[in-house]
Each structure stands twice: as C-alpha cells, then as structure tokens.
Specification:
heterodimer; A: 394 residues; mainly alpha; 2 domains; 3-stranded antiparallel beta sheet; two-stranded parallel ribbon; 11 helices; 67% helix; globular; B: 559 residues; alpha+beta; 6-stranded antiparallel beta sheet; 5-stranded antiparallel beta sheet; 13 helices; 29% helix
C-alpha cells in the first residue's frame, strides 16, 4: 500500500509534466491548422485533462498513504509540502474552467512540479506521530491550511504571469531586477533538487569530526561534497575532500554547504540561460505570453486571493487556535509559526484593503501576490527548519 | 457645510460624488464614475474642524488602517528573530541568556525589550489602534452606504449610466421589458421596474461582509483584552505523584484530582512494520502516548467544618495530550511528567563488632521521603530518630547544609541511633548522614552502620490547570469574523440598469468585484433580447491587450 502510494506520486509527477508540455504547445503552436484551414489546437484541452488525471493520481497517493500509515499524511516537511503542491493543482483544476486561460496552466503546472519535487528532498518514509499530533485536528487544521495556501499560490502564478507580460525588459530597471531575482530563486530551487537528487542517487556521504557549538567533539555527515566544512572539521570518511574553508561553530555548516551548492547551481543555470538568449530570463519568456490579457490575469490573481484568504484564515488561524487550545492549553502562544501565520494573514488583509480602497490593481497588485507567496514559503521552509519552535517537526 | 443641489432638485451633503437621488455625477472626475461607497459623502470627508473630527478622520482612513496593519506585521516578525522570554530554557536568566547565545544582537534584542515584544506597551497600543481604526472606519462607511443602497432609485441620470464600467446604448428598437425581467429573475436577480426602466440586483448582502467581519474582529479583540481582568483567566500547575491526590487551585479547595497512574508508552519497532525505518534511525525511543489515569473528587457539602474532608467521587478520565479532563470550565491538561522520582528508602542496621559486620534482622525500617516519620522504635530496644531531613540537599553559600525545595531529588537524612543500652533522654546516640552513595559518621567511630537496603520510586505527572472565561467571547468573535469574511468574499454585488429614454436604450452594469460573472450575465441577457453591445470601458482604455481572454466566450471559440 505504502509503495503503491509512492508510485502514484511518480505517476502524478509525470502527468504534471505532460500537462506543462501540453500547455506550452498550446501557446507556442497555436497556429496549427488542419486541412480545411481551421485552427486545430487541442493542446490546451489535453493540458487540462492531464492536470485532472495528475490531480486524481495525487489524491490516490494521498489517500493510499493515509490508509497505509494510519494518519493524515501531512505531519512532516515531505508530506506537507507535497500536500501544498497538490492543493495548488486542485485550485488550478477548479479555476481553469472559469477563465479558460491556458497561460495560467503554463505557469501553474511547473510551479506545482517544483513544489512536489522540492518536497521529495525531505525524508519520505512514514514517521511515528508524537502524541500532540494524534488527533483529527491534524487533518482538519493542516489540510484546510494547505488548500488555502494552494489557492493563494494561484494568485502568485497569475501575478508572475502579469509581471512577465507587462514589464519592459528593453531597459534595465528595478522591476527587471526584481523579476529576475524571482527567476533566479526558481532556478536555484531547480538546481538544488537536481544536485540533491544526483548525489543522493550516488549515495554520496562525507563525514567530518568537528567541534560543535558547545565545544564538544562530534561528527557530522554531508550528503553533498563539502565546499565549506564544520568548525575545526577533519574529514574521517574515505569519500570527500578537504573543504575550502571551515565555518565558525554557530553556523550549521551542512545547511550552509547545501545553500551554497544551490546558489552556485542557480548561477550556472541562470547565467547559462541569460548568456544563451542574451536577454533577461523573464524577458525570454515574455514573447510566449505576449497575448495574455492583463485585465483577465489581474482578475484571476485577485479572485484567487479573495477565495483563498478565508480558507487560509479558517485553517491557519481559526482551526489552529481551536487545536492549540486543546493540545497546548492555550489558543495562542506567540510561537514563531503562529506569528508567521498571523503575518501572512495581516499581509493579505493589507493586500485586500489596498486593492479595494486604494485602487492597487494590475502591477502593484501582482507584486503583492508575489510577496505573499514568498511569505508562505518562508513560513514553510525557514520557520520550520531554522527558527526553533513547537512546529519544528521535520 | 454647504449642501450641493443636483439638477433633479435633491440636496446632497458636501462631499457627495454621485447624487443620492438620480445618480448624476456631481464632481466630474474622469471617464468612469466613482462607485466606491456609492459615491456618498462620508462623515470623515464632510467635517474637518473640531479635534473630534480630526481623530475621527485619522482613524477612518483606510490608509492609516493599512499602515497599522503593516506596522503590526513588521514588528511581529521582529519578535520571532530570537525566542521570546517564555521559550528560553527554564532556569536561564534572560539577562545573560540572550547575550551569551546570540552575542551583541542578542544583547540589543534584550535591551530593547523585544524578548517580551508581544506584551510590550507599544505593541498593545498598536493592537488598540487597530481596534479603534476598525470601529471608526467601519462606521464612517457603513452608515452612508447602508442608506444609499436602501433607498436607491431605479431610474438613474443618463450621465450615471454612461459613466459605468460596463455600458452600452443603441437607438431603440422595441425591447420586451417583461421578457428581460423574467430572464433576470431566472438568474435570481431581484428586479424592480419603474416607468419601463429596470434595476436588477443580486447579492447585495455581500456588501455587508466587510462590516460583519470587522464586528467579529472587534469582539475578538475585546475578548482578548478581558483576559487582563482578575478572575477571567487561570493558569496554574500541579505535580501529582502516582496514587496521590491534590487540590485543584482556583476552585476554593472544592475539587481534588487523584493520579491513579501515569504511564509513558513508546512505539514498538516490532509491531510497526511501516514505521520501522524511521524508528531505527531515531536516536531514542519515540513516545507514542503520555497518559494520566485521573479521578476527580468534590468535597462533600455534608461534612461540617473541622470534621475532616469527605471526598465525593465525580468522574474518572484518562488525561492524554489532546484530551484534557474538563469540568465546570476548568481543564486539566497533560503537559509534563517525571519518571522514577524517589519515594522511599528502606534501611537496615549492621553492627561492627571486632571487625565482623553482622546485620540486625529485626531492625529494618522504611522512610517515606515525602512525609517521613521522625522516630522509629524496635522490639529489641533499638531506637532511631531522624534529626534532620533534606529532600533536595545542597550546601549554601554560607557553607551550611540545606534543601533547595521539598522534592526528593537528592535526599539526605541525619539519623541518630540509640542501641538498647542507651537512653535517648540523656545519652548521645550515634549520628550519621545518609543519602545516595553517601554514608558519613558525624560523631566519631560508630558501632553501628545504617545501610540503605532499597529505594522505591514513583512516577509524577505534571498537569496544567486552566480556566479561560474569555473563550466564549473569542469564539463568538471568531465565528462572526469568518461569516463576514465568507459573505464578503464568496458572494458579490452586481447590478444591471436597463433604461429607455428619448427613443434610446441604455444598459449599464456594475459589480463590486468579479466583473467576469457580470459580463456573463449580460451575455446571457443578450440571448433573450436584442441589447446594445456592452463595452468594458476600463478595458477600452487599455485597448492594446484585448486580443485574448477578454471574455470567456471569446476564448472558448478559439479552443
């Protein structure tokens, strides 16, 4: 059952890829004509059908894993991040029939793939549930939050689409730099996944003995070749080599090393694309989306936020508070994860007020959607992995 | 303040954008009418003189409201930079902890008071400002908006129609108003007719969503504030050893809880195939359950004072994480535990005669470490007295032995032993200090040695006692907030005006959001009757981009 579930996720990933390809073809090959001269480009429809099948496979993964492990599979970084990707696909499948916007599929499907691939970088084995998680509130709270965030992520996809379409790439500006920074971030994530998967498949490990932050002798394992080593690190495994530099004890050297690899990989990918096309990366995509109707994309992003915000609030704050009252004796305790959920809530509240009362439509609104998604990602990755708190389950 | 008189004769308050009666734009601003709040004058725009007006105007501004939200957002994030004081390891002094752990930045964090950011006066002030802004901004808009929507007229000024975002006109052929009316009603519009003109309206209640959710938020904030009033909030702690009963604080000594047994259970690698890899990788056994079998007792009301407490059994409950024992608004939560706390020592006595030690079989006694008996007498004449008992022994700064607290974590006992021939009244006995791995003779060579034979241990459960009278208010506030949020987000207000004047037919449409749906409704109407072509006047301004996706039918045709 567990294995079947994992296989379903691979199937889903393949189908998301197929959907991406179909949507790409529907945009670039839109002038295909049949013998009688009618436009015969069914790719968008195929793209949408693939997305539906992919969603079905994803849900099969989710349900099978739930049955196999005996609890809602949303209890650690792998499970939650995967669920977020699935939720985004779900939101897309619901929103697409309303607007029939193939460009949205062209942007959303790769982001879904990226999120699910990123999730697979975390240990995917079944994990025992600590007592605090053993309750139905686990799935009520977490699944609602994931769906809310998945819908908000559609706002991000539409926002990015808006920006790529509308920014003038012919001359350097802050906007160009900002959108290129987003592109770099996405490419660095791709690089991280590729490098991590590659060395993981090769079973690469390098072990160091080092002096930790408490001044004690300890050992640490690297899964990527060490560019930077731990404090007073000595290589003790056969594999590996001496790092260029050893870091001070207060930094987690293996994490810094991974970050460095992602950064370098990102630079290679980004630099390669930029040099190859002699244009900003987003500027290279721009001609593909030149037919996008800005008004429509703006409305999609706004509607996604308007629909996602109440669901996120319900799952991420209201249900969260009810559960916290039951499990942790108080409904609110200023735990970092709680605070960042509140910050996300306040941010989208500010977005809605700016949009409704101050007339922030179009480009300004699109930038806000991007920042909002960055907050969600920050709360998922940084707050879980770096800031210690009650939610550090991974 | 000057009233503004419209050409229709209606007197509007100063600051009105659209005549309250006929809708004619009174301030000429661009191509589209300002439909926000129906173009009514708000108090904040009308009165600007007195200090009250100034305060009102300040807080009624959405701009100010957004600034408050942004300030809250930014300051809240600062508080997560380093842990708040309540999350630093217990026993650490914050004065030293932040500097030691995070260096200069940590010191600065502490000096600026960020280690208690969320209870600082300025953070409270920001939250209060948000509350005030919520009240004033809502009232400032809700009252005039309510009036405007309540008494809106069907027939509008032509200029009003022309300045709507969705608009179309044509030289009138005959239109069948009744047919349009039926079509609109079919789409669940509420339709009003006046002299052959139509006003179709749908989802007006969505306009109240923002005000409903603001009311919910205000109730929520008030609920949070009430916590600071005495008696509203109880937060206490109780440690109970297995088999013991403790009084529950906050109940005036009326309720007692007994810990029948506390257990910790672990995941079993053998039983859980699927969890095996994760369990093997974990450094320590993974806990699957913390559980206190508890019984709740109530002091019997019948027993008179002084006659000892009679306890009446109320109920049993297995307290686990996520399932507290709850009674009369008080909840007992499983939050902590201590395994294997020392509970009693059993001692025996040996005699050292001529280098040979011999145990005295009859002299064996047990000391309860939580409530020791101070004097022990045996049939063969031996007497043992406890002179001093330190449950948690340490030597203080003055070099004197003392105890840190009453918890027997490091118990030491000073015994005085009297053999049968000695008289406790007059003679001095043999004095020794005994603890774990400690046995010292304090007054010279003794003939007897007290030996620890056995130690009993007990498990202790740590329960949080919590009562929060603000919860019902908070819950009501949260529920109202959610209702308002959904009401304002998932429904939207759309209106269609159809008007015949001077042989022309005018159609205009307005939606507070989701124009897409309104456009579809207009397309649908076109199937019933020959309406003029409706243009999106906002989109026309950005004419360059209309090639794809403007309307769904357009896109569908391409597929």
């Amino acid at each position: 059952m567990f294995e079947l579930s994992s296989n379903m996720l691979y199937v889903a990933f393949g189908l998301y890829l197929a959907s991406t390809v179909f949507f790409a073809v529907s945009i670039t090959g839109r002038k295909f004509k049949n013998r009688s001269g009618e436009e015969k480009n069914k790719s968008a429809l195929l793209g949408y059908l693939s997305a539906i099948l992919a969603l079905c496979a994803s849900i099969a993964y989710f349900v099978l894993r739930w049955i196999a492990v005996g609890y809602a599979p949303v209890s650690n970084m792998f499970e939650y991040t995967t669920a977020l990707g699935i939720a985004m696909a779900l939101a897309f499948v619901i929103i697409y029939p309303i607007y029939h916007n193939r460009y949205l599929g062209f942007v959303t499907m790769p982001i879904v793939m990226l999120i699910i691939a990123y999730a697979s970088m975390f240990p995917g084995e079944a994990q025992p549930l600590i007592p605090a998680l053993q309750t139905n509130w686990l799935f009520i709270h977490v699944i609602t939050t994931a769906i809310g965030q998945g819908i908000l992520a559609i706002g991000f996809a539409a926002g990015v689409l808006y920006l790529i379409r509308s920014i003038d790439f012919s001359k350097a500006s802050k906007k160009v730099k900002a959108i290129e920074f987003i592109m770099f971030g996405l490419l660095a994530t791709v690089a991280y996944i590729a490098i991590g998967t590659g060395f993981g498949a090769a079973d690469y490990t390098a072990e160091f003995s080092y002096v930790n932050e408490f001044g004690d002798e300890s050992t640490i394992e690297y899964y990527l070749p060490p560019i930077v080593g731990p404090n007073e690190g000595e290589l003790i495994s056969e594999q590996g080599f001496s790092p260029v530099v050893n870091l001070p004890d207060y930094l987690r050297s293996d994490d810094v090393n991974t970050l460095l690899w992602s950064f370098l990989g990102g630079i290679v990918l980004y630099g390669g694309l930029r040099a190859g096309f002699r244009k900003p990366v987003a500027g290279t995509i721009q001609p593909l989306v030149s037919r996008v109707n800005l008004q429509t994309v703006d409305e999609i992003s706004y509607r996604a936020i308007a629909i996602g915000f109440p669901i996120f609030t319900l799952g991420g704050l209201i249900f969260a508070m009810i559960w916290a009252q039951i499990a942790w004796t108080r409904f609110w305790g200023w735990d970092p994860k709680e605070v960042w959920a509140l910050i996300t809530f306040l941010f989208y509240a500010a977005y809605l007020h700016l949009r409704l009362s101050r007339g922030w439509h179009g480009e300004k609104s699109a930038w806000l959607c991007v920042i909002g998604f960055a907050l969600i990602m920050f709360n998922l990755i940084f707050v879980n992995l770096v800031i210690a708190g009650l939610h550090s389950y991974a | 303040m000057n009233k503004v008189t419209c050409e229709c004769g209606h007197e509007n308050p100063y600051g009105t954008y659209l005549c309250e009666s006929c809708g004619k734009p009174l301030q000429d601003e661009g191509r589209l009418a300002n439909m926000r709040y129906e173009g009514v004058a708000r108090r904040s725009q009308t009165y600007k003189r007195s200090p009250v007006d100034k305060v009102w105007n300040f807080f009624s501004s959405v701009k100010v409201g957004i600034w408050i939200i942004v300030l809250l957002l930014v300051t809240s994030s600062i508080g997560t930079l380093f842990p708040q004081e309540m999350y630093i390891p217990p026993g650490e002094s914050p004065t030293e902890y932040y500097a030691a752990e995070y260096g200069l930045a940590g010191q600065l964090y502490y000096d600026l008071g960020f280690h208690n950011l969320y209870s600082s006066w300025w953070y409270m002030l920001l939250v209060a400002a948000l509350g005030i802004s919520l009240v004033i901004a809502s009232l400032d808009r809700f009252v005039p908006l309510y009036r405007a929507l309540k008494k809106q007229r069907v027939t509008r000024h032509t200029a009003f129609m022309k300045k709507q975002r969705l608009y179309g006109e044509k030289e009138s052929g005959e239109v069948d108003i009744d047919q349009l009316k039926t079509a609109l009603i079919k789409r669940r519009y509420k339709v009003r007719e006046e002299n052959g003109n139509l006003l179709a309206e749908k989802g007006r209640f969505a306009r109240w969503g923002p005000y409903v959710n603001h009311v919910g938020l205000i109730i929520f904030l008030i609920g949070g504030m009430l916590r600071f009033f005495p008696g509203m909030y109880l937060d206490d702690y109780v440690w109970i050893r297995d088999g013991e009963t403790e009084v529950i604080s906050g109940t005036d000594g009326e309720y007692f809880v007994e810990n029948n047994q506390f257990v910790v259970e672990f995941y079993d690698e053998e039983e859980n195939d699927i969890l095996q890899p994760a369990l093997m990788r974990a450094d320590a056994p993974v806990v699957s359950n913390f559980q206190t079998s508890a019984s709740l007792y109530k002091r019997s009301s019948e027993g008179s004072i002084g006659s000892g407490t009679e306890l009446e059994h109320v109920k049993d409950h297995e307290i686990i994480v996520n399932d507290p024992l709850t009674f009369e608004g008080i909840s007992l939560y499983q939050t902590d535990y201590k395994m294997n706390e020392l509970s009693s020592f059993t001692f025996g006595v040996e005699t050292d005669a001529e280098g040979e030690t011999e145990a005295l079989e009859d002299v064996v006694f047990t000391v309860d470490l939580n409530d020791p008996q101070m004097f022990y007498e045996f049939d063969n004449g031996y007497q043992i007295e406890i002179i001093e008992y330190f449950p948690n022994f340490y030597v203080n700064d003055a070099g004197e032995p003392t105890t840190e607290n009453r918890v027997p974590d490091n118990p030491r006992i000073i015994f005085e032993l009297f053999p049968p021939e000695a008289d406790p009244e007059t003679d001095q006995g043999e004095i020794s200090l005994i603890g774990i791995q400690v046995n010292e003779e304090l007054n010279g060579e003794n003939d007897h040695t007290i030996r620890m034979l056995d130690a009993d241990m007990v498990n202790v459960t740590g329960l949080v006692i919590r009562r929060d009278h603000t919860l019902p208010i908070i819950m009501v506030g949260g529920a109202i907030f959610m209702v308002g949020l959904v009401q304002g987000s998932y429904w939207h207000h759309r209106r269609i005006w159809i008007q015949q004047k001077d042989g022309k037919l005018f159609v205009a449409g307005h939606a507070n959001k989701n124009w897409h749906a309104l456009k579809k409704d207009l397309e649908y109407l076109n199937d019933y009757s020959d309406l003029p072509e409706i243009k999106d006047q906002l989109e026309e301004d950005k004419a360059a981009e209309t090639e794809e996706g403007g309307t769904s039918s357009h896109v569908r045709a391409q597929q």
